Amino acid sequence: MRIGASLLTLSLVPLLVCLWVFTVWLPEDMDRYEAYGAAEPCAAGAPAAEWEECLRTVSFTVDGTRNTQSRTRSHEATLSGAPFWNGAVSFGDPDPLLERLRPGDRVTGTVWRGDVTVLARGDVRQSTSAEPRDEFQMTAAVGTLAGLLAALAFWLGTTRLTGPRDREHRTWARYGKPLLIALLTACFGVGLPFARLGLPWWLVPTLVAPAMVYTARQLHRYRRSQGAVAE
Hints:
It is a single chain. The protein is built from five helices and six strands, in the order ααββββββααα. The protein has helices at 2-10, 12-38, 136-162, 172-197, 203-230, and strands spanning 56-68, 74-80, 87-90, 106-112, 115-121, 124-127. A six-stranded antiparallel beta sheet has the order 3-2-1-4-5-6, with no helix packed on it. The mean pLDDT is 90.
């Protein structure tokens, strides 16, 4: 009884995460990406402000760079010389620009809403981690993972509370663990390649949810057949 009630209570946490992802995080990222794509260059001669809807081109001096390829990957450039926006700027990779920069180099930055979104030196440009991207597939994968994890915890908790006294076939080892592994594999196995291919984000939950239902049914049949053989 206590385990079932705990699972039902815990299922509320990933459920709330799922709702937040699809009602707040994903819509905000989509709105930000669309606003960035529609932004116009700032008017010539207009005074700079720390937060602007327009795209402003700013000159910076590189104070230093950091390229760490260890477990905690870190790719940063420290900038100075502008009226605002000075400090560390993060990148996802060291190339094509960051690895070429040295202290004292002059670079041109594109600033939008207080973030440096692109750095350039000559003809070489590199987007920073702050630049809005059309990568909603991974956000959808996180939301899908949370929603299906809530469903899994709810199902295990319900069967614990309402099932027969012999609950061996509903244990974490026999059902919860394999379904969790399958869920992680499905969400990120679909989200990552879909992000690289640029496929619509809504395909992630559309494909993963039915796949997990099918997997759960097949696992249930397999466990039942194992029980029948054992008898």
